[in-house]
Amino acid sequence: MNQNIVQLFRRSILLFLACSNFLLGYSCTEKNDLPKVQIMVSRVSLIPLPTTVTHGRYNIEIPKNVAISSSMTGIERDLLSETLSTIGVSSTSTDNMSAYIRVASDNTLKKEGYRITVEDDGCTIYYSTPEGRLWGVQTMRQILLQNTTTKDGRKSIPILLVEDSPKKEWRGFHLDLSRHMFTMSHIKKIVDVLSFYKINKLQLHLTDDQGWRIEIKQYPPLTEIGGWRKFDEYDHRLIEKAKTDESFKIDTRFIRGTDEYGGFYTQNELKELIAYATSRGIEVIPEIDMPGHFTSAISAYKDLSCLGTTGWGTEFSDPICAGKTENYPFLKSILKEVAELFPSKKFHLGGDEVEKTRWKACPHCQELIRKEGLNGVDGLQNYFIKEMADYVRSLGKEVMAWDDAFIEKEPQDLLYTYWRDWLSDQPGKITQAGYPIVFMEWGRFYLSATPSDIHLKSLYEFTFQPQFKGVVESNVIGFQACIWTEMIPNETKLGHHMFPALQAFSEVAWGSQRSWSSFQTRIPWHLKWLEQSGFATRKPDFIN
Ligand SMILES: [Zn+2]
Fold first, then answer.
1. 176 C-alpha vs ligand 1 centroid, how far in Å?
2. CATH placement of domain 170-515
3. pTM score over 0.90
């Protein structure tokens, strides 16, 4: 047994004793060397709420210079070091056993689980996987940031035992970059916050009717033409609203001339973002929405639609003509380029809101339906999605689609993002058929409507019953919050919609024991921290 293991064993025993003492309400240490400074007792407001948080009976002082374990990854050390610097404490890196913030492997912990002990001689993050260690670091940051400072400037944190692990593997955030864009540096700041709250998936909605946002090297017109639009109905509404409320002002960095909106992200920018997010525990999933919501591409390649038009049908925009199979290789080559750029094993193909009246009137579409013996335009939709999904799968990816792509009679093996809350039996049908879903129903998980305390509480207290009957919860792999940006044209407005809804969502997604009254007491510190970090937030009415 090497020395490290012996020390870890001793630490485990101490931890056990510490736990027992917490429960008995006695002093927290069996050691005679009482802490040098016993200051006041403070409590920390952690979000998402861990499985258990046990506060000790006193605080310990944070050293003036904190030694961080060199056994952590570079990014973990950087996150802790930046956090300490924010509170005016310097840091160094040193070997694990002599560090003040240490790590220790514990194979009994769940995949993303961690345990934190704050004891007289420092802090230990226990983990069984790199993910768990990172989430432990994020919780440790919340503890350090919520330090208490005495009048003479001494900083302290409470003696603490935190045990934690998530209930669901998928805790996602979806960002629409088509309707309105944000700078890469702001998207990275959002990634920082997502990681802070243990959100581990970021779905980027990169294409839609209103703009093509990802560079495709084979087809520059997709961004040169498809990346720009004349101000649309929403832009004009925003301009009108901005006359009396600045928060609706369109970010001028994305305006060209007097009446055009647009831009795109280069593949290098996206690569950088992916690396940035990956190191912070977040998988970035691309979405190329088809066959509907494709106007931006059709505006550059007119032959893609049934009649070579980019109009609007009864409900939705002119879709890709599914009957012109000669266009399939073009579409697949776009998917290939995107699939190669994103290391994620997931790929979202959209599949929502297809204007099928166009297909009904199109000779190409009708011909394919006849030739393949398809079940009308629904069958045609399934045929198209299957063709694209099979191709994406051949590139080694698992395919995702909106629940519109679930055809009950001929279900496809997709990971469905469920959103249409007016079809409340849909998640039951999909999960009973054995297919997995990511749950992001419109009513609560969409953060795009005017934010309110009523919505916040409703999101926070979400349960499947009674609205969503028959859901097989083991097939719900997780939850996703979703931002659509028609009326969110700048960073300030985005902040108003995201916070504190994202924190409420994080507790639903992480699977904490939820308590609305506890959340109300914990959220104020977090909003203050976000504001200090340069984010706009919405102050709920319950905060004075
Ligand atoms: Zn057609």
1. 27
2. 3.20.20.80
3. yes
